[in-house]
Design goal:
The protein is built from 5 helices and 18 strands. It is flat, with a radius of gyration of 22 Å. The chain starts with 18 loop residues before the first strand and ends in a 10-residue tail after the last strand.
Length: about 350
């Protein structure tokens, strides 16, 4: 992959370069029949993420350093080793959408396994020639090839199967998801600018009525963080977030509500999280999937790709969906893993 076409996933949490997700394979060892894919846009060049979980056998040959900062490394995928549903994306014509209409077309080019990682700060210093970590270069820095070889295996759990996008027509900037050409566009539930006070209160009331809520209260009271007579949701480290999403064409409205205590988990005695995905049906809030979830996500767009009512959630650092048991799982993660201490 040429450097001019590099994916630089600079902590994709920012999402300043458009990334989207839709249907991708369920797992590396059991991929679904793919119907759509994640798109990453960087430097006006779109890339397609076909799988968020990768088997090491899917790639072979030399590794290439795409970016030395927060190392991004690629290795050519081996078509014969890929599951057929993934290999079939090669040369597939696709249409990229922005959430309202199609914006551009193209074709999937070469496939790569892409790894990215934040190494420990001392490791980066050594790679750059500062072997005694005093801030001064005291030896030759490692070449790009050696950095690529060392970095590629540091975070195999963060590997992605990606495809380049070639022969594009139209404006691909601002696109949010890709579908095979001639596919019908999905139903889009856009996040509303504000969530009404009544809907917010009802969503939080739903969470408070769940057994998990009472369990978190008991855990909080038994921890060193509790305030006598207080409630875990009012802890200073707790984040409460209620977001409503609307399909303007049908009027379908869905609410995602989460209460998350101590999101970073550093040095706190108590960590509690409870979320729910709720469909608004008149005065009722009906859970979609399980009654509640324990996943640290913040959706910003919902898609009904097949117009069958099943939702794909585009989240702050990837994509989430409901599995066969109704649990909410994040199966595409774009956040770059850090090997440094987070606290």
């Amino acid at each position: 992959m040429p450097r001019s076409a590099a994916i630089v996933l600079s902590l994709a949490i920012t999402l300043t370069s458009s990334f989207v997700a839709a249907q991708t394979p369920r797992a590396a060892n059991a991929p679904e029949a793919a119907s759509s894919a994640v798109v990453v846009l960087h430097h006006d060049q779109p890339y397609v993420v076909l799988a968020g979980q990768v088997d090491p056998s899917w790639s072979a040959g030399p590794v290439t350093l795409v970016s030395r900062v927060e190392p991004v490394i690629t290795r050519r995928a081996t078509s014969r080793a890929l599951p057929a549903t993934l290999a079939a994306w090669r040369r597939r014509a696709v249409t990229l959408h922005d959430g309202q209409s199609s914006r551009c077309t193209g074709r999937i080019g070469r496939l790569y396994v892409l790894n990215r990682v934040f190494p420990m700060s001392g490791t980066i210093e050594e790679w750059n020639g500062d072997t005694d970590h005093d801030g001064d270069v005291d030896g030759p820095p490692l070449g790009d090839g050696e950095v690529a070889r060392r970095a590629f295996d540091l975070s195999p759990e963060a590997s992605l199967l990606v495809g380049t996008l070639e022969r594009t027509r139209g404006r691909c900037d601002g696109t949010r998801f890709a579908l095979p050409a001639r596919s019908a566009g999905p139903a889009v539930l856009a996040m509303e600018a504000t969530t009404g006070a009544d809907l917010r209160a009802r969503a939080l009331g739903y969470l408070r009525g769940l057994p998990q809520w009472a369990e978190h209260q008991r855990e909080w009271e038994a921890s060193g963080d509790a305030v006598p007579g207080g409630h875990w949701e009012t802890d200073p480290d707790t984040v409460t977030d209620v977001r409503s999403f609307l399909d303007a064409s049908t009027g379908r409205r869905v609410v995602f509500v989460t209460v998350d205590s101590s999101p970073d988990g550093c040095g706190d005695m108590f960590v509690g999280r409870i979320s729910a995905l709720l469909e608004v049906r008149g005065d009722a809030l009906v859970p979609i999937g399980a009654a509640s979830f324990d996943v640290p996500i913040r959706p910003w767009l919902l898609l009904d790709v097949a117009h069958d009512g099943e939702l794909t959630l585009l989240v702050h650092d990837g994509r989430a969906r409901l599995d066969a048991q109704g649990a909410l799982v994040q199966d595409v993660t774009l956040e770059i893993p850090s090997l440094d201490c987070p606290c």
